[in-house]
Amino acid sequence: MTGQPSAPRLTKVPQHVAVIMDGNGRWARERNMMRVQGHRAGVDSVREIVRTAGEVGVKYLTLYAFSVENWSRPKTEVSTLMKLLAKFLKDEVPELNRNNVRLQAIGRITDLPKAAQDQLHDSIEATSKNTGLTLILALSYSGRVEIIEAVQSIIREVKLGHLDTAQIDADVFKHHLYTRYYPDPDLLIRTSGEMRLSNFLLWQLSYTEIYVTSTLWPDFRREEFFRALEDYAKRQRRFGAVSS
Ligand code: FPP
Fold it and tell me: Which protein residue's CA is at the shortest distance from atom 24 of ligand 1?
């Protein structure tokens, strides 16, 4: 691609990258724009990061697109975000298919407006045969709700006699989470400088490497993503043990 920074040589590539896309509102305010314009610019970053992740060999990319807490934002902002989401899901299918990207979603999907839910199901179906990157959108997502739903699901299985309480361990628990089909993230990226998890993947991030940049999400593009990947490649992961 002309004019685009080429991918660096990386000694290791994270299999799963999770991203807290923060700072759309601040990006807009800095430009005297409406917040929704920040979200629109954020969609362009989403497109670029999805393409780049697939290119460098990341297998799973989870994007925190909308939290359960985000429903309490002003009505107009919520409805614009839902419309942007439905439009993104519709418009991006050809590009996702061109790049062999399979779309998935986690969260309380039935909370979404019907139009967004229908489009989401259509786009998941239309990309289901792709074998490259799996793009997972976290929508109406809450880490605490996910854990509570997992507990409820385990209790149901115990009551039905399908599971003995003595069998419940971390592996059984994982199989009741939305993310049961995916490995835990290796790298978490958070934009806009905030040092918090904001109720994102609370169980799954236990041993994840964290990369925080002050760059606002609409400015987080290919080059910034490469910087995060280069930083990750230098990390020594010990998972609570000592290095050899
Ligand atoms: C955080 O910025 C961002 C969000 C709550 C939404 C993220 C949504 C997008 C990037 C666009 C839609 C996504 C897809 C997948 C089509 P903020 O508004 O909290 O920023 P602020 O902290 O500066 O106010």
Answer: 25
Q: Does residue 73's CB lie within 6 angstroms of at least one atom of ligand 1? A: no
Contact 232, 14 (CB under 8 A): yes
Asked whether 85 lines ligand 1 (CB < 6 A), one says: yes
Q: How does pLDDT run along the chain (244 residues), one tens digit per residue?
A: 457 888 888 999 999 999 999 999 999 999 999 999 999 999 999 999 999 999 999 999 999 999 999 999 999 999 999 999 999 999 999 999 999 999 999 999 999 999 999 999 999 999 999 999 999 999 999 999 999 999 999 999 999 999 999 999 999 999 999 999 999 999 999 999 999 999 999 999 999 999 999 999 999 999 999 999 999 999 987 788 877 6
C-alpha distances in Å from residue 65, one per residue of 74, 236, 240: 16, 29, 30
Backbone dihedral region for residue 34 (phi beyond 0: left; psi -120 to 50: alpha; all else: beta): beta
219 carries an active-site annotation: no
Total-model pTM: 0.96
Ligand 1 pocket residue status of 135, Cβ below 6 Å: no
Please tell me the CATH code under which domain 16-142+185-233 is placed. Answer: 3.40.1180.10
Residue of 19, 20, 22, 69 to test ligand 1 pocket, by largest number of atoms within 8 Å of CB: 22
Chain centroid, CA 48 distance in Å: 14
User: How far apart (Å, rounded) are the C-alpha atoms in residues 150 and 166?
Assistant: 17
Q: Is 83 in the pocket of ligand 1 (CB under 6 A)?
A: no
* In the chain, domain spans: 16-142+185-233
